[in-house]
Amino acid sequence: MEEVCRAKKGSDNEKIRYTRNLLARLEQPTVCESAGCPNRGECFSHHTATFLIMGDVCTRNCSFCAVQHGRPSAPPDENEPERVARAVTELGLSHVVITSVTRDDLSDGGAAHYASVVRALRYHCPDVRVEILVPDFKGSEIALATALAARPDILAHNIETVPRLYPQVRRGADYARSLALLRRSRTMSPGTIIKSSLMLGLGEQDSEVQFVLSDLAATGCEILTIGQYLAPSLVHAQVVRYVSPREFGNWREKALQMGFRSVAAGPLIRSSYKAPALLEELR
Predict the structure, then answer these.
(1) pLDDT greater at residue 37 or residue 137
(2) H-run or E-run covering 5
């Protein structure tokens, strides 16, 4: 609990205020705030954030996620790519993570907008490494190809949990569809690094976690994060078990033995947490 409090607070209040004020001025949402990430204070104190594009209303209602759900009232903002590039420039980032709500209301799931954001970043800050954390695009190969055509450095898609728990935890998603997206990404864009993330503590069994790791390794996934699920509120899926740091360490070692090239595992690890360090470890 003490570790969680430190992460939320951060280490430099002046830098936290600067980051928050900049994002507010540019009216650019972050998943850090929208999803109530426990690491947001720490990340903001280092002038880092995970940008949330295409609004802050998700068309799906996953029981683990704090992002609001419903039907988005507007199409993606055509000025957003330039706004994100400006924020990245002003924050002085060398590595940026771009994610979004799921937009099942859009014919391409927002893939073209992802590509526009990546292209804007390539134009305005060409030295920045770009990581996109994408939804499943309803399994559309064309949408995935559109996003990859912009040549992000890293394509991430989170598997989140074991197949048995999908109906309760990831409503609207499909385990096989998510695996297929990761596998196709490796085939379509061999030079792009593939990444995924898994939560523990939702009631999964060790044998099921092992099964998921094997499936992910088979897709060509190179970077993996494993963290503790923390319920955002009493109405969300509740924590079944708190996993010990030693167990997380064991899962990290197993994943590395299975062929993952960079693995972060621990109670406060999240998919975008210390993303630059994970990439450097891989290199």
Answers:
(1) 137
(2) helix 2-9
Arithmetic mean of pLDDT over the chain:
87
Tens of pLDDT, residues 50-91: 789 999 899 998 988 888 889 998 999 999 999 999 988 988
Computed over its alpha carbons, how large is the radius of gyration of the chain? 18
CA neighbor of 94 nearest in space, from 47, 55, 139: 47
Task: Report domain 2-282's class.
Answer: alpha beta
DSSP 70: S
Residue 150 structure tokens: 């912009």
CA distances from 263 to 13, 134, 221 (A): 30, 19, 11
How many CB atoms sit inside 10 A of residue 219's CB? 21
Question: Do 226 and 268 form a contact (C-beta atoms < 8 A)?
Answer: no
User: pLDDT by residue (tens digit) across 83-113?
Assistant: 999 988 988 888 889 999 999 999 999 999 9
Compute the distance between CA of residue 247 and CA of residue 254 in angstroms, rounded to an integer.
Answer: 11
Q: Contact at 8 Å (CB) between 270 and 225?
A: yes
